[in-house]
């Protein structure tokens, strides 16, 4: 970088006034309680590397210690619930009213997690009215996945440290670890720091935290039982199907966002990390299956951006906004979304390009004079087209128009004949011809004949930024002569 102080030559009256910078001390002046202070306020710049180096992980789980390393509360919930559901499946008759109610209640509690815990609280992707917040916090409790605050804290760490040891559901630890292992076995490391002070200030989050045990019993089992019991006299079905079996499905539906969504599908927006897009994941997770998009644009209220993709959570949030219960639905600028898509498309095209052979350029070939060309064409079948010398010996019998038309041009310039004089050859023919290049004719081609010297398949190429040349180098980059930096 230059050490010369840039001089301003622009008339100061024409320079756009820039807003004054916020003094860095402002944040410190706000009185914050311990609870309100962002957890990541004072972390070092090299936090991730520092933590991985200095914070000792728990010892690896082995045959000698595994029973001490289990999280028995999660283990109980995650084994007893499916056991109850299985017992019910074999001993209790499933009535159709209960079946419909169970599926409906699966979506109610599922949306509590996806539209509430995930998109509202963990990502702040829209604003919800107090009524909607209470509804989502209550419905979400029925999914029995921990309180909003605990859940969002882990999820924010997952986004911030994706695929690292500080990601609580690190997909590099394997499918089953990210699905359920991280809850059953005590994690070897604490999740990386993630701030949830905004949630500590949210009265609905605090209310749910306070009443969490009551809420999970009420919403997890009592309500689904009571609806089926009081509605059509099926108390047992309400307990086993709308309660236990439904809970089991909601659990694994959410877990799939951490496992399946990091394992199955495509990476249309970025392939730096494991998140992927797949319709199957979307179907089993109430629309959270477009996870590659979600990790790139986490504050977008959508997961699926195309109208036909399955994202009932997005439809729900949009519908709530139509009723005035949700507002400020965040959408990333389409320009940025499409840039991500383009980058990935170009990357794939580049791979295709690298798998193909292209004709040598003029500077990669020997330059041959007209006399030498004439001389050598007496020994082998050489033809000049578009300033290049081609060896057509092996091709003559393959020529769709017949051998004689090629043979009569040996030792001659067939440019005019090739480009329409005798036959207006296809782009494919031009591409193939270029593969027979053996030399460049001295003097080259006349200007304006690029379409005859550059084969169609080589007119548009995918190039990396460092192959394009002086792209980023600009001698005026540091001068700021227009005063644009204020
Ligand atoms: Zn993820
Ligand atoms: Zn997320």
Word description of this protein:
It catalyses: octadecanoyl-CoA + 2 Fe(II)-[cytochrome b5] + O2 + 2 H(+) = (9Z)-octadecenoyl-CoA + 2 Fe(III)-[cytochrome b5] + 2 H2O. This is Acyl-CoA desaturase. Its main location: membrane. The chain has 486 residues and is mainly alpha-helical. The chain has 2 domains: 283 residues, no CATH class; 96 residues, Cytochrome b5-like heme/steroid binding domain (Flavocytochrome B2, Chain A, domain 1, Roll). It contains 20 helices and 6 strands. The longest helix has 27 residues. The N terminus is likely disordered. It binds zinc ion (ZN) (2 copies). One zinc ion binds next to helix 13. One zinc ion binds next to helix 4 and helix 6.
